Amino acid sequence: MTYLNSWQKHPPIRAISLILLGVILLNGCVTTKRTSYLQEHKKSPYTGEYVPPEDYLIRPNDNIYLNVATPDPRISAMFNAMGQMSGDVGFDEASAHIYSYPVEIDGTVELPYIGVLHVAGMTLPETKELIETSLSDYVNDATVTVKLVNNNVTVLGEVAAPGVYPLYKERLNVFQALALAGDIDTYGDRYEVSIIRQGEEGSIVKKIDMTDKNIIDSEFYYIMPNDVVYVKPMKGKFFAVESMPWTLIFTAITTFILLENYISPPQ
Predict the structure, then answer these.
(1) Is the dihedral of CA 117, 103, 72, 126 positive or negative?
(2) Which domains does the chain have, with CATH numbers?
C-alpha cells in the first residue's frame, strides 16, 4: 500500500494533513501591509500637528558626569571626579558610580567644594548654568560640561538583537532606537509597539503604531533617556512556518501511517 493510498483510506490522517496545510497557507506568509512602516492611514489617532520633543529633566537616581576645564589643571582637578579631564568618556554600569555623581532621592547632588545643589526637575543646560554660577566663587574662566551617564534605551521583544543601548545623540527617534536592535522581526507587531517612560508620577506606557506615517508627530516619536521599547509578537506567531517544528510533525504522521500499515495490513 502506497503512502497516497494510506492517506486516502484513513480519514483522520487526511483531516490532519489538510488542517496542517491550511495552517501553513494562512499563517506562513506575512503581508507587506503588516510589515511596512509609515503608511497612509485613513483613520489616524495622531493629530498631524508637530509636537516638539521635550527636554529630559534630571530625576532622583540619575548619575551625572561633571567636567570642569580651566587654564590651571590643578584647579580643574579639584572639581573633576577621579581626575577625569575629558568630557568625551564612555561609561558602563560598572564605572557610572565611580566617574559620576549620583542624584539622591531628595533630588540633590553633592559636588566637591561647591556643596549640595538641588538639580531634580532641571534640564542639563540649566544644571550646567547652576554649577557655573556656584563655581564663580572659585574661578571665573571655567568651562563646565554636564552629561547624563545613565543615558540608555532598552529594546525588548520581537527584534533581532534585544538589549540595552547607549544614546549617543540628543534626539534619537523610535525608528533609530529599533535600528540599534537590528529592526523588528518579521513576526513583530508593528501596529502596537509599547514605549515605557518614567514620569514624575511613575511609569507611563504608550502604544504607538509604527505603520502610521503620522507617528512622526507623536510626543513619543523621540526617545528619552531610560525609555524601554517593547515589540510584542503578532497573533498566530506560534503557527508560523519558520517557528513550528514541521519536520517533527510530518515525521510523526509518516511514522503513524507506517505503524498503521504494519499492524493492520491491507486485505
Answers:
(1) negative
(2) 3-28+241-263 (no CATH), 32-54+151-236 (3.10.560.10), 63-148 (3.30.1950.10)
